[in-house]
């Protein structure tokens, strides 16, 4: 799972370098480079505590003609930054696009999650997809987007902006899922720590 997310992130970074005419490694070398990058990163990390294996944890593809867009965030308290991770897959489970962006840490985790949701919607728009199911693991944020509530709260403008953006799609919906089912998007969000910072609002 981590190797897949690292490879997706590496391809995304390679594409961005090409856009500004920076030198890039050949596409045939990406898999090896991503593996080496992940191995170097993991060598400096503490070994995770092994937990009992959970059952019935499986990402489910959308129906034919639809896309499923998962989004998540990670907060880097020590640097005052946050990461956004997004992955879009089709009805066969094929990855259509992925994204890892680093931003300045907002005032609350809720705000970061809403920024991740909005970035997911914008990415779908940028790629020209018209039908998408959006999945995130913050029940509060998903409920706000599904019901259009909290518009008068401190995050109301983000709820409104996200709903305004998503209304340009032909078909869309927001669903809450468990953290374990949103693992790839979360790994991408954590990988954003290694990216250049972007100011996103």
UniProtKB/TrEMBL annotation:
Q: Annotated Gene Ontology MF terms?
A: nucleic acid binding; RNA-DNA hybrid ribonuclease activity
Residues spanning the signal sequence: none
- A Pfam family it matches: RVT_3
All copies of the RNase H type-1 domain together span 70-192
CDD domains from the entry? RNase_H_like (cd06222)
Q: Which residues form a coiled coil?
A: none
What is the protein name given in its UniProt record? Answer: RNase H type-1 domain-containing protein
Source organism of this protein record: Lithocarpus litseifolius
């Amino acid at each position: 799972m981590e190797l897949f997310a690292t490879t997706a992130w590496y391809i995304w970074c390679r594409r961005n370098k090409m856009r500004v005419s920076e030198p890039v490694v050949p596409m045939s070398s990406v898999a090896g480079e991503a593996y080496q990058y992940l191995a170097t990163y993991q060598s400096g990390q503490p070994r995770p505590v092994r937990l009992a294996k959970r059952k019935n944890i499986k990402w489910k593809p959308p129906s034919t003609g639809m896309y499923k867009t998962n989004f998540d965030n990670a907060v880097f308290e020590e640097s005052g930054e946050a990461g956004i991770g997004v992955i879009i897959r089709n009805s066969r489970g094929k990855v259509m696009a992925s994204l890892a962006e680093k931003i300045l840490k907002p005032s609350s985790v809720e705000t970061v999650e809403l920024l991740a949701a909005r970035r997911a919607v914008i990415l779908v728009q940028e790629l020209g997809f018209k039908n998408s199911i959006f999945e995130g693991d913050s029940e509060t944020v998903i409920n706000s987007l599904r019901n259009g509530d909290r518009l008068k709260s401190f995050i109301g403008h983000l709820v409104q902006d996200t709903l305004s953006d998503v209304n340009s799609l032909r078909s869309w919906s927001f669903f809450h899922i468990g953290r374990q089912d949103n693992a790839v998007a979360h790994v991408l969000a954590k990988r954003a720590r290694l990216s250049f910072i972007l100011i996103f609002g």
